[in-house]
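Case study 2.
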Amino acid sequence: MRWSSALIPTLKETPADAVAPSHILLMRAGMIRQLGAGAYTYLPLGLRVLRKAEAIIREEMDAAGALELLMPALQPIELWKESGRFETFGDLLMKLNISGGHHMALGPTHEEVITDLVRDLINSYKQLPITLYQIQTKFRDEPRPRFGILRTREFIMKDAYSFDADVDQLNSSYDAMYEAYCRTFDRCGLPYVIVEAESGPIGGDASHEFMVPCSTGEDKVIQCLSCGYAANQEKAEVGPSKEPAAKAVADAPPYQAVPTPGQKTIKDVCAFLKVEEKTSGKLLVYVADGKPVAVLLRGDHEANEAKVRRAFGAATLAPADADVILKSTGAPIGFLGPVAIKIPLVIDPAVAALETVVVGGNEVDVHLTGVVPGRDFKLDRVVDVRNADEGDPCPRCGAAMVVKAGLEIGHVFKLGTKYSKAMGATYLDEKGTEVDVIMGCYGIGVNRIVAAAVEAGHDANGIIWPLNLAPYQVAVVPLQVKDAAVMETAEAIEQKLTAAGFDVILDDRDQRPGFKFKDVDLVGFPLRVVIGERGLKEGKIEIKWRAEAEPKTVPLETAADSILAELKAAEEKLHSTCLVNREKRREAKSSS
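Prediction:
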């Protein structure tokens, strides 16, 4: 490819409203352009990266035994109502009416469509297990699309679905997809972390996320650097404190009701009473499966709604409004407390460990001090219902955990029978009994792989692409394009590298060397090959890896072979890393 024939509209300045490094650099490198909020055009270089990511995904899915198909993006609303997700997915679902009065949606995901397909095609245990996948455009009405291609309304996703006869088959299918994901992200050169995760609106009872740590990540990853435990904040558990739990003193004085006029927030109440927030408690009321419930947290902690939902065994959970709170507790917002509460209550262990706690008095402008957990309110339902945070003890080894921002690039779920039961996807077992198919779901954000590679690989000069994702792996840069010898040498090297299977772009623009180098660094081609008049006279050619600080020279007569050796060594290094990582996973699995 000649640069002069390509469409690479690089930019010198940072685009307006671009904040994330991937957004800034993909725009500046001439790879994407915004059409509207949450909608982007992939220009030729950007599309090449996207297609390379898709090719790696497709190869690993096929190697894992999954079968590719393609489902419609346009989906009947009736399927969403049949599964019960029409309400829970809410306004994220893009709805439209088409001729004939049909109510349709643009698919944000395809659980309903694939289940509808399988219930028509699969009817015997002999047809199971089977895993089907597609690479398809998805649509979600994101209220705040941002960070370029990280959070958009239209995106490309690989989604796979496994269908199994029993739990053992599901575990095998899940493990196969889990391993395929690891191989995919290894080959993409991404520094990913695997974390335990919540299933969210997809549903299901077990899941893992694949996250790339980066400063602009939208999720929090809780990690233990001692034992390797990792989970997203929705799922992360908090281990028992190393400090002994406080004991209620038998002769502790009774609690006191203290006037706190106009003090509604934890911060205001604690400042008014001159106590620390960690010695206070806040009571939150939710509606779980239509019934009011309450949780009591330490004042400086935040509720984890996924944990709250699990604590009450609820399918749905939402914060209660002021009317529900007043009706169910008899107290207004800002003054709620656990003493004599009449609705189901769960207490977080951090509150149960306090000797005394300041809580709401269940009447306007009143709080209670000196309240003893276990004496003044029961501790019969003590459950971890808060967000894990920096410094919290690991649930496995007790070491202090750390928090990092992370970008989700993949997610695997054990769905069980959530969709098959709701939609009647069954099979006949060996005895002729009708049984619900067991499902798994496995998604990869293809666009997010592209963005994550930039988030993880860039510097002040531009992008640093992994070799397998780069739009072109080598940029051949002749410095004097009007010099016949320079161009002949550049073209000869280009042809030999291309014949060996590498993607090469030749920068044949008649521009200053510095101008060319800046563009090459901005776009992020992994290897730069520079041919100039002086070098030819000295019998040398300069090569420089984008990720390295200094260039080096190779002899002119063996330049093409030397460059090929460098490229093949880089490929072998990546391959070796993939094998080492695979062996580490096998060892970890066998030891667990």
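The first strand starts at residue 32 and ends at 36.
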